[in-house]
């Protein structure tokens, strides 16, 4: 029993230190923001522009799809990439569900005077001295925050869905083609995560690590399950993509397009379906 | 391997809880001259209140979750004044006149209800007189009561003896008069939380659209105090203050389980009280107090 208590207290202290380290790391990376208009605008460009942000990942995906040296190797790559797409959808679903369940506002929100409900008390949260980038979008968002416009999405930053999604796709590309995979992974970590998420303090390193863990875990499980249980179907599907090359090219273009835009159009379409369901079936205004 | 997995899971859970990652509520003070605290919780005995009024050190609650009209004070605790035995279903808004008669509306049972100063509950006017789904309520300077109806999209005038007449008909275009209040100049403010508009009816009976087509603005309850109109927004989880000479200003934003801010009242000291329906289905709610921070702390 005393050993259990000691073990538990060590865990608590370790967790506390990890939380402090997480905050310090986030502030260290964020310390480069808000100093140079040019630097912040370059970073913002890669964050806001889908082509610059994720176009490279889409290109790597397409190159891996078509890059096999023989029919067998093309089929093998396509099997991996099809499974990767299934895993990526699962990853984004998981991270979205988790971030809506776990209540942790983005660091930029935590820079404000906030009270958190703890039991029956409102307790003042420690304010995080986040630096706001000087680009127009960040400044506009910050002004909105100061006037109380807080997006619900900004109240659940853990884990990072962007990190999860792009890491899942990049690791999938890496499994299909090492060279393209390294490029996709480097772009994901440097441009999408480091520049896009950490410098602007949209996420802490912990959010990214959690997103990455979900991505790698789910991708590994889904690759394993699909290979063991559904290998017949997967072979048939990859064979069809070779047989009906024109049609599969059109579809894979759509996939790459959506990957490059973090599935924003599919999400908008699902949102429309949900609204139609509310209006037509449930008769709500 | 199994032990290692269990240890990792325990560590993960401990880490998550130590980071305060549970689903919670939060209040973001956009005006840092204010501070927030929980004034009362369900432990006091109330359920999920909607409208509330502060009067002489007592807090009167239109308790939608418990289907009751209640009063709370520090000395006497919570006391039930009227409940479903009277026929009320979902008390919505309430006002108190100078003689301490309490009037309240009910969006499910309809009608206008009164709990008189001598302790007698009664229905002033019911559905049979056209008050189908009563929402906002205001005490007019002539002593009559103005009652908003969300189903008929009208505002009615109701006299103390129960006579109902049309005050603002459908032609005024108010879809849901959710809350109403007079200012010190005799203007009537009307909150429509369906069309998301704040109206002002001036002394010449002309209706003005004060705030409309604004992102993140859906006025739920309004309360006038010392030259300022305080507004809650349950859809966006906001508390605003509006002064005719200034722009609409956000005091606080609410998130998580505290998002559904409903009723609002201000005491003599300028402290703001808000009801939050954390879970109306399960009859759970809180009362939050928003008060001025001492000047030294606010400056810091």
Describe the structure.
The complex is a heterodimer of chains A (285) and B (300). Chain A is mostly helical and 285 residues long. Chain A is built from 11 helices and 2 strands, in the order H-H-H-H-E-E-H-H-H-H-H-H-H. Chain A has a two-stranded antiparallel ribbon with strand order 1-2. In chain A, helix 3 packs antiparallel against helix 4 (71-101), helix 4 packs across helix 8 and helix 4 packs across helix 9. The termini of chain A are far apart. In chain A, 38% of the residues are buried. With 300 residues, chain B is mostly beta strands. Chain B has 2 helices and 25 strands. Chain B has helices at 2-18, 295-299, and strands at 25-29, 34-40, 52-55, 58-63, 68-73, 77-82, 91-96, 102-106, 112-115, 121-125, 134-139, 145-149, 154-158, 164-168, 177-182, 188-192, 197-201, 207-211, 221-225, 228-233, 238-242, 249-256, 261-266, 272-279, 284-292. In chain B, the strands form 6 sheets. A 5-stranded antiparallel beta sheet of chain B has the order 1-22-21-20-19, with no helix packed on it.
State Rg of chain B: 21 Å
Measured as a percent range, the helix fraction of chain A is: over 70%
Number of helices of chain B: 2
**CA-CA gap between termini of chain A:** 58 Å
Helix content of chain B: under 10%
Query: From the helix content, strand content and strand pairing of chain B, which structural class follows?
Result: mainly beta
Structural class by secondary-structure content of chain A: mainly alpha
Largest sheet of chain B: 5 strands, antiparallel
Mean pLDDT value of chain A = 87
Order of strands in the sheet with most strands of chain A: 1-2
Shape of chain B: globular
How many strands of chain A? 2
In terms of DSSP E residues, the strand content of chain A is under 5%
Assembly classification: heterodimer
General shape of chain A? globular
């Amino acid at each position: 029993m005393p050993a259990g208590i000691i073990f538990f207290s060590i865990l608590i202290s370790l967790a506390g230190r990890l939380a402090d380290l997480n905050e310090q790391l986030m502030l260290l990376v964020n310390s480069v923001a808000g100093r140079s208009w040019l630097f912040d605008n370059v970073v913002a460009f890669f964050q806001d522009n889908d082509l610059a942000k994720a176009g490279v990942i889409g290109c790597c995906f397409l190159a891996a799809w078509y890059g096999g040296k023989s029919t067998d190797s093309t089929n093998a790559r396509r099997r991996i990439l099809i499974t990767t797409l299934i895993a990526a959808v699962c990853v984004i679903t998981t991270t979205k569900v988790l971030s809506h369940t776990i209540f942790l506002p983005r660091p930029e929100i935590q820079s404000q005077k906030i009270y958190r409900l703890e039991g029956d008390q409102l307790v003042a949260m420690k304010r995080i001295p986040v630096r706001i980038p000087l680009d127009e979008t960040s400044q506009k968002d910050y002004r909105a925050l100061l006037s109380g416009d807080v997006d619900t999405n900004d109240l659940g930053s853990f884990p990072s869905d962007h990190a999860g999604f792009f890491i899942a796709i990049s690791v999938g590309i890496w499994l299909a083609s090492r060279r393209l995979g390294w490029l996709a992974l480097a772009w994901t970590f440097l441009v999408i995560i480091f520049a896009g998420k950490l410098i602007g303090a949209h996420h802490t390193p912990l959010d990214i690590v959690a997103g990455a863990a979900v991505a790698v875990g789910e991708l590994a499980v889904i690759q394993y399950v699909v290979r063991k249980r559904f290998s017949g179907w997967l072979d048939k599907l990859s064979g069809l993509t070779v047989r009906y090359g024109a049609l599969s090219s059109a579809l894979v273009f759509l996939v790459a397009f959506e990957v490059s835009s973090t599935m924003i159009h599919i999400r908008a379409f699902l949102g429309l379906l949900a609204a139609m369901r509310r209006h037509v079936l449930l008769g709500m205004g | 391997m199994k032990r290692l997995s269990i240890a990792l899971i325990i560590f993960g859970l401990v880490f998550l809880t130590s980071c305060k990652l549970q689903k919670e509520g939060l209040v973001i003070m956009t005006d840092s001259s204010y501070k927030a605290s929980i004034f009362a919780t369900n432990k006091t005995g109330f359920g999920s209140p909607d409208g509330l009024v502060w009067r002489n050190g007592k807090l009167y609650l239109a308790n939608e979750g418990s289907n009751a009209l209640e009063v709370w004070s520090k000395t006497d605790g919570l006391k039930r004044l009227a409940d479903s035995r009277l026929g009320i279903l979902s008390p919505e808004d309430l006002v108190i006149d100078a003689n301490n008669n309490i009037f309240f509306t009910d969006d499910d049972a309809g009608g206008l209800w009164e709990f008189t100063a001598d302790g007698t509950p009664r229905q002033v006017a019911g559905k049979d007189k056209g008050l189908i789904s009563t929402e906002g309520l205001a005490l007019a300077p002539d002593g009559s009561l103005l009652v908003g109806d969300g189903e008929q999209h009208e505002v009615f005038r109701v006299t103390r003896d129960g006579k109902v007449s049309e005050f603002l008909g459908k032609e005024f275009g108010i879809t849901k008069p959710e809350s109403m209040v007079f200012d010190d100049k005799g203007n009537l403010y009307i909150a429509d939380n369906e069309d998301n508009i704040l109206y002002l009816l001036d002394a010449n009976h002309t209706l003005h659209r004060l705030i409309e087509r604004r992102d993140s603005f859906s006025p739920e309850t309004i309360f006038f105090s010392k030259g300022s109109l305080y507004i809650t927004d349950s859809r966006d989880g906001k508390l605003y203050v509006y002064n005719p000479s200034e722009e609409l200003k956000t005091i606080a934003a609410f998130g998580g389980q505290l998002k559904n801010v409903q009723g609002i009242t201000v005491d003599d000291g300028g402290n703001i009280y808000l009801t939050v329906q954390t879970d109306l289905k399960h009859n759970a709610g809180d009362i939050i107090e928003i008060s001025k921070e001492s000047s030294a702390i606010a400056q810091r």
